[in-house]
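Quick start: read one record
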Amino acid sequence: MKLKLILSLICSVFLLNTPSFGAATNWRIINRIHIGGDGGWDYLTIESETNRLFISHAKQVVVVDLKTDSIIGSIAANGVHGIALAPDLKRGFISNGANNTVTIFDLTTLKILATLPAEKNPDAICYDPITHRVFAFNGGSGTATVIDAAKQTVLDEIPLEGKPEFAVADGRGSVFNALEDKNQILKINASTLAIDARWDLPEGSTPSGVAIDRVHGRLFIGCRNQTMVVMNSVSGKVITTLPIGKGVDACVYDPIGKRAFASCGDGTMTVVQQGNNDTYAVAEKVITESRARTMAFDPTTGTAYLPTAKFGPTPDATPDQPKPRPAILPDSFEILVLRASST
């Protein structure tokens, strides 16, 4: 009897300290949304309230109705990188890397409202709902252009002292940005525009994608050294690192399933499950397609969206193009739709 009691207590302690994995398993491609056209892509984002997907694609943002998986509109852009949505203001914002501007559009009609100047090569872009400010991170100049989203005016430029990649807002007045060449995460005060903290990542991380668990204050940082770093968004403490695929670009967090995702150019998507007692473990490494390196996630439906295309052969290297890229085959651009077989 005593032995059974002791074993029961040991099992209870073990279970309390073991990561709690969700039931979602066997992620797979369930559909493909054909976009077509020519040119490359970068970020994409979902407006869950209206079931719309906004996709960067060369010289436009393509808008897809996720109820029908059909294209319902587009917004002209120029070398588009990112899209930030401000549903409370019914506006959207596009970073145009080719002409160093930010386009503001009406979320309802998709009509362009204004075009504002940024510095060199605006890339990542995010909206802070507390201050109603948009932050466009300029990869070419190592700065952030700050925009008053309501007044549609440029407020300031923040020197970052590094090359910015993805950025997220915590909904409490802070914006986090990855500096890929400095192996750092910046914490920016959205009100004062001061950099409140610079947190170092492990040597050689080269951070790219950043996602956030706003409830528990955790950042999920996809790094080019094939790791995901989980970081405390209040203290900057590194909680753990986990293996992911090669060529990561984007990370997203699912607050319903309590899991983080990293989409990688090697044709994999790593699913990290959040467990009890601040524990994390790789739940699944999903096969996607080559160069499906960015993604968006709809937590209301448990669906992931990854853009990719078909490519031709890689041309020979030249002095002008020492690292040539293969050309995208015409009309092959599409969105992979992934969902777990059980949730």
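The longest strand covers residues 25-34.
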